[in-house]
Specification:
alpha+beta; 12-stranded antiparallel beta sheet; 5-stranded antiparallel beta sheet; 18 helices; elongated
């Protein structure tokens, strides 16, 4: 233990003595003289990188690409502007570019030892050290957690995560006077601003808090400031009630699912993985990558699983163009491969088409060059939500030879904090490389200043978060929990069952009093029914209440409607919004119709495949055809469509439907195949507490789903089906005749 830490331990009294006996302790690391990098790479890594530049084509290509970008920027005058713009504006983007250049120039310097790269990074750092002491709150500050260099402190933390790595890489080239100027006027003040001067963010269990902890902790390691490391790991008061370890405890489920959903899991992974790498480099005895049963490694694998055709499932506040090739996942895949040498990760790295300039990047490059990549095992999974895994779950059900053909995503998760949406028991469906049953995601144009300064748009609250924007039931045109985050955070669904077999993979969940005493129970299954070209999706949503309500069940989808099997009255001459609040004000009512007592069927085409949505109908049901875009004077919303099944004045209602992919359309060869649905009828029969769903095909094949809703796998259940006694054990039974 170095002298400074020994004195600190003696002064710390009982608290630090107690903490030192647990994993939360912050024991000493070797004294950092700044003669070599000490965060995400070591002297050994540098030697491997230097060698790989001339021996490994993949690593060499990455090195030359990064070096080329730095070389271009070195030809330009240094620009460190006084902060002025919000996200997407010039000064915002310039400061982002500068932290990347500081970081990348440091890496290039470590590999080729050319002083001009260290000098370039030094000049940028000196300019910031001159500027930063003069700054106060950003002029375009966000309402919460404003920054100084940027409009929010989150960006400030990202800036420091990158910048401290660049400084760590060039520090050995600096004089003591130069180090003092940069450290005392820039790095330490930024770390202090993010920690002691921003306690509400630093101690927050949230991705903003994670970025701040990583920035401050990495600064502590690089500058040999143990207090900063302790605060980063344990919270400002170093009690363990906040900080990095508490974030690992609270933000991830035991399965590695991140509370805010895949989009923010991707974003939060970078500070988690980088700070963990810094801890591993400086204090390997802590075994940070084994903490909580290897939760950081699990989180990387889970993030990869939460994707289809390389794009993340867009639940909660999510931008739909983010995928597994993002920089955050490049860090995750490279660093975890460096630990595990899992060949599956190499196939992801190959898809990402880039590697890190680090020791781990060398390992990935070598694995790829040696042909060691193996396909990543995208699979059917149930991912528990909540720190203890008891706040619902996200079910991902896949089909196809390599589980890549179809994906049914069943969202039975908790609210997901302030980035969550009011969409209990919601679902999405992917097929043929496309999102078929859709989620809008977030209403935002990130860093496009002309669109509301890059903020989340007002329509994120008025539309994207509202229940009607999702594929779940709306009660009396009011969003779940009356749209109250505080109320929504208190309740989570209960995942009742999840099971996978050759013929059927089924998920069922329930939630009590989602709105005004209304309970929901939903069963969704992917079924491989004989005579059908592709698996079908069977959906049973049961709604129950002591009082009558209006129930609206939307289905948001992509495609062009081809056929409707019931009469529809279209709004041909004028359009009116469907309602005046809770998202309804943004929907144009395009048409309305009813199938009466026959099964309703709507067929659409997307790309070269047909999809038919079949639903049990009755005289109380109405189908509304709607399109997004009403009350949108600034054209902030995409023009998307939905079908809404509406019933009035019901206490209980069972919505039963089947989504069926089928056929093929080939415009080049001008042929159409199997454009009509194979479903001839749907039927629901209730016998006491049991439900019996019958799916009959035009080929005469019939499938039956028998539901007891009993989670006891040993309890026997009996019903009469078409005069025959059927017996089974457990929650459900599926069979075909």
């Amino acid at each position: 233990m170095n002298n400074r830490l020994l004195v600190k331990a003696n002064l710390g009294g009982c608290l630090l003595v107690l903490v030192a006996t647990s994993l939360l302790s912050v024991s000493s690391w070797a004294y950092n003289t700044l003669s070599e990098p000490s965060l995400v790479m070591t002297a050994s890594d540098v030697n491997r990188m230097t060698s790989a530049v001339s021996t490994n084509p993949i690593f060499e290509d990455q090195y030359r690409a990064v070096k080329s970008e730095v070389d271009k920027k070195m030809q330009l005058p240094i620009s460190v502007p006084v902060p002025k713009d919000a996200g997407g504006g010039y000064t915002h983007e310039q400061h982002k570019l500068n932290y990347k250049m500081i970081h990348d120039a440091g890496l290039i310097y470590q590999i080729n030892k050319e002083e001009r790269y260290a000098d370039f990074a030094k000049r940028l750092l000196n300019a910031y050290a001159d500027l930063y002491p003069t700054l106060r709150e950003h002029p375009e500050k966000k309402e919460q957690s404003p920054g100084r260099l940027f409009w929010q402190s989150l960006n400030e933390a990202v800036w420091l995560v990158y910048t401290i790595q660049g400084y760590d890489a060039i520090a050995a080239s600096l004089s003591d006077t130069e180090k003092a100027h940069i450290e005392n006027n820039l790095l330490l003040p930024v770390a202090k601003f993010l920690s002691e001067q921003s306690p509400e963010t630093f101690n927050k269990i949230h991705n903003h808090g994670t970025w701040a902890a990583a920035a401050v902790g990495m600064t502590g390691y690089a500058l040999d400031k143990p207090k900063l490391v302790e605060q980063a790991l344990l919270g400002l008061d170093r009690s363990g009630n906040a900080g990095f370890l508490k974030q690992l405890d609270k933000l991830f489920s035991p399965d590695g699912y991140y509370n805010e959903g895949p989009y923010y899991q991707r974003y939060a992974l970078m500070p988690f993985i980088l700070f963990a790498k810094a801890v591993e480099t400086n204090q390997p005895e802590k075994k940070i990558f084994e903490y909580r049963d290897g939760i950081i490694k699990k989180a990387v694998y889970t993030a990869l699983q939460l994707s289809y055709n390389n794009f993340f499932f867009p639940i909660n506040d999510a931008l739909k163009d983010k995928g597994i090739d993002t920089q955050e996942l490049v860090y995750g895949v490279n660093i975890i491969y460096g630990l595990t040498r899992d060949p599956q990760l190499l196939s992801i790295a190959k898809l990402q088409r880039q590697v890190l300039l680090s020791g781990d990047g060398v390992a990935v490059s070598q694995g790829l060059e040696n042909g060691q990549a193996r396909p990543f095992d995208f699979s059917t999974k149930l991912l528990a939500d909540g720190p203890s895994g008891r706040q619902g779950a996200l079910a991902v059900i896949r089909s196809g030879p390599d589980k890549s053909d179809q994906a049914l995503v069943v969202k039975n998760t908790s609210q997901g904090m302030n980035h969550g949406h009011f969409d209990k028991l919601h679902w999405l469906f992917y097929d043929n490389g496309e999102e078929i049953v859709t989620d809008y995601g977030a209403a935002r144009y990130l860093n496009i200043e002309a669109k509301y300064g890059g903020h989340y748009l007002p329509e994120n609250k008025t539309w994207a978060k509202q229940t009607i924007a999702h594929n779940t039931v709306v009660i009396d045109e009011i969003s779940h929990f009356d749209g109250s985050l505080a109320a929504a955070e208190k309740k989570s669904p209960v995942q009742l069952v999840f099971t996978e077999s050759e013929e059927i993979t089924l998920s069922a969940a329930s939630i009590k009093s989602v709105n005004h005493g209304v309970d929901l129970l939903r069963t969704l299954a992917m079924i491989r029914l004989e005579g059908f070209e592709h698996p079908i999706i069977l959906d049973l949503l049961k709604v129950s209440s002591d009082q009558p309500h209006q129930y609206d069940l939307p289905l948001h989808f992509q495609g062009q409607i081809i056929n409707i099997n019931f009469p529809v009255e279209a709004s041909s001459n004028s359009l009116k919004p469907l309602g005046d609040k809770n998202g309804y004000q943004h929907l144009w009512k395009k048409a309305e119709g009813s199938a009466g007592e026959t099964s309703a069927q709507i067929t659409w085409i997307l790309k070269d495949r047909f999809y038919t949505y079949s639903q049990i109908s009755d005289s109380d049901s109405t189908m509304l055809f709607v399109e997004l875009g009403a009350n949108d004077p600034n054209f902030n919303l995409r023009r998307e469509q939905a079908i809404i099944t509406r019933v009035h004045d019901n206490k209980q209602k069972a919505f039963v439907s089947v989504l069926e992919p089928h056929g093929q359309y080939n415009p080049r060869l001008e042929y159409t195949k199997d454009s009509y649905s194979q479903v001839s009828s749907l039927n629901l029969e209730t016998q006491g507490d049991y439900d019996i769903i019958k799916v009959q095909s035009k080929q005469g094949k019939t499938g039956y789903l028998l539901l007891s809703y009993d989670r006891d796998e040993n309890k026997t259940h009996k019903v009469i089906v078409s005069g025959d006694k059927k017996t089974w054990k457990g929650f459900f039974h599926w069979y075909e005749v």
